TrEMBL record:
<dbReference type="Pfam" id="PF00560">
    <property type="entry name" value="LRR_1"/>
</dbReference>
<dbReference type="InterPro" id="IPR003591">
    <property type="entry name" value="Leu-rich_rpt_typical-subtyp"/>
</dbReference>
<protein>
    <submittedName>
        <fullName>Negative regulator of reactive oxygen species</fullName>
    </submittedName>
</protein>
<dbReference type="InterPro" id="IPR032675">
    <property type="entry name" value="LRR_dom_sf"/>
</dbReference>
<keyword id="KW-0433">Leucine-rich repeat</keyword>
<dbReference type="InterPro" id="IPR001611">
    <property type="entry name" value="Leu-rich_rpt"/>
</dbReference>
<keyword id="KW-0732">Signal</keyword>
<feature type="signal peptide">
    <location>
        <begin position="1"/>
        <end position="25"/>
    </location>
</feature>
<keyword id="KW-0677">Repeat</keyword>
<dbReference type="Pfam" id="PF13855">
    <property type="entry name" value="LRR_8"/>
</dbReference>
<dbReference type="InterPro" id="IPR050333">
    <property type="entry name" value="SLRP"/>
</dbReference>
Length: 408
């Protein structure tokens, strides 16, 4: 009887087995999928580097495995490696000679591990990578001093990800060896102070500081920066250093902060995208016109206690000091307190294409006197207090899409 009942099961399994090993005499034992010079060994329950991969492997992906330590001899067999990825393991350390034979390695992803445990030994390992360009250390529970040690002497790095760690305070020692740094992601830490942290990184172009606890950015003087993201902080003041130099800044994201004033932007810049949504921005120049009673409070000075050379003065009520907004294409002011546009403000933006003003306090709008740019194609003034919108007949081309819902 038992023999009879087994037979149909065997018959079912046989064709499946044939499909799994098509036309091959060697059953596939490697946990890795090989595509050209890449070995993809993700999610394969590995705790050590598989041996027997091609000697000339250039990319090795070992994400979502169970690595705790990367041992000195792990990579000896793969001297052509350019890209190594070990994200989402339980890595505590890389032994100090791990990269003795990895002189070509350019990209190393160690995201989401536990390198806070063995950062000292790991730092010795990293120093043996002369051509390392991209390093991802995000989500490793790293504190300020761990990061300083890990990054010492890593002079070739161009891209660095430190997001989701425990950084609180950065100073001029933090990134002092990273002279080639172009892109730095510091979002989702607990930072409240940046003290000259980027002074040694003259090539830095993209900086993400979103989701931290920064209270202000005064003395902003990073002329080479192209993208700055400081959204979701507690910024009350953004004040540029009044340098007689053109800032390369194109995108500035200050959304979801506590700004009371339109940011004090550089006087010469290429700024195209300015995101200021969800702050408390309004304009105050109507206050400044009203006589002398405000004399004593019209300037505010910021003192850097350690270094008096960095005093910054801002003339608060002078809306003429918005800085260079002549290249703006997108201005996002959703969810602020704007009651009116200062005289000439809109005209300063001849290439503006999107103006997002929904949920503010606008009361009147005279499209004729504001002289909106001819390239404006989106104007969102919904959810304001508008009771009057004035426009010359035929003034606007049909391309403009205007949202006006929820007004008086
Ligand atoms: C994963 O590997 C461990 C030993 O390294 C073994 O005990 C376990 O059964 C493996 N799990 C799976 C799902 O293969
Ligand atoms: C790091 O750089 C410093 C000076 O640039 C040098 O003295 C030191 O030996 C380097 N350390 C290592 C481990 O390479
Ligand atoms: C940095 O790492 C985080 C988390 O691993 C990721 O979400 C983010 O996209 C990375 N940043 C960049 C610029 O690649
Ligand atoms: C700034 O960073 C936040 C968080 O990563 C992201 O949601 C937002 O899109 C970024 N802003 C820009 C302009 O890219
Ligand atoms: C700013 O620089 C320009 C040319 O680079 C020069 O003509 C001008 O005088 C400078 N202004 C100030 C205030 O230094
Ligand atoms: C200042 O003057 C403007 C008109 O120029 C007026 O609308 C505003 O209420 C005045 N503000 C104060 C505080 O007196
Ligand atoms: C305000 O400042 C002006 C010039 O700076 C001065 O003439 C005037 O007396 C001041 N008013 C008060 C009330 O201090
Ligand atoms: C900055 O302010 C302090 C305190 O008022 C002052 O002593 C110092 O001279 C100022 N420095 C500069 C460069 O203005
Ligand atoms: C709107 O602005 C134009 C041009 O400045 C002006 O002629 C017109 O009187 C204004 N309309 C209203 C209702 O204020």
């Amino acid at each position: 009887m038992p023999v009879h009942s087994l037979t149909p099961i065997l018959l079912c399994l046989l064709p499946v087995w044939i499909i799994l090993t098509p036309g091959s005499c060697h059953p596939q034992l490697s946990p890795c999928q090989l595509i050209q010079r890449s070995a993809l060994c993700n999610n394969a329950n590995l705790s050590s580097v598989p041996s027997g991969l091609p000697h000339n492997t250039e990319e090795l992906q070992l994400n979502y495995n169970h690595f705790q330590t990367l041992q000195d001899d792990s990579l000896l067999g793969y001297p052509s490696l350019k890209t190594l990825s070990l994200a989402c393991n339980s890595l505590e350390k890389l032994e100090s000679n791990t990269f003795q034979n990895s002189k070509l390695l350019e990209s190393l992803n160690l995201a989401n591990n536990k390198l806070y445990i063995g950062y000292t030994e790991t730092s010795y390992a990293l120093k043996k990578l002369p051509g390392l360009k991209a390093l991802d250390l995000s989500e490793n529970e790293l504190h300020d001093e761990f990061v300083t040690i890990l990054l010492q002497n890593l002079t070739s790095i161009e891209y660095l990800n430190l997001s989701g760690n425990l950084l609180q305070r950065l100073d001029e020692t933090s990134f002092s060896d990273l002279h080639q740094l172009k892109e730095l992601d510091l979002q989702r830490n607990i930072m409240f102070e940046l003290d000259g942290a980027f002074d040694s990184n003259p090539k830095l172009q993209r900086l993400n500081l979103a989701f931290n606890y920064l209270p202000c950015l005064t003395d902003f003087h990073m002329t080479q920066l192209v993208v700055l993201n400081v959204s979701h902080n507690f910024i009350e003041w953004f004040i540029s250093n009044d340098l007689n130099e053109t800032f390369q800044l194109e995108t500035l994201d200050l959304s979801n902060n506590k700004l009371l004033f339109f940011p004090f932007l550089p006087s010469h810049s290429k700024l195209r995208n300015l995101y200021l949504s969800h702050n408390n921005v309004r304009f105050y120049d109507q206050l400044a016109d009203n006589g002398t009673s405000l004399n004593s409070t019209t300037t505010v000075e910021f003192y850097n206690l350690k270094n008096h050379m960095r005093n910054v003065t801002a003339r608060l009520w002078d809306d003429g000091l918005h800085g260079d907004i002549s290249s703006l294409e997108i201005l996002d002011l959703r969810g602020n307190q704007v009651e009116y546009f200062p005289v000439g403000f809109i005209q300063k933006m001849p290439t503006l294409s999107r103006l997002q003003m929904c949920t503010n306090c606008l009361e009147t709008l005279n499209l004729t006197s504001e002289q909106f740019s001819g390239s404006l194609y989106e104007l969102d003034i919904s959810n304001n207090r508008l009771n009057q919108i004035v426009a010359d007949e035929g003034q606007r081309g049909s391309a403009l899409s205007m949202h006006m819902g929820s007004n008086k």
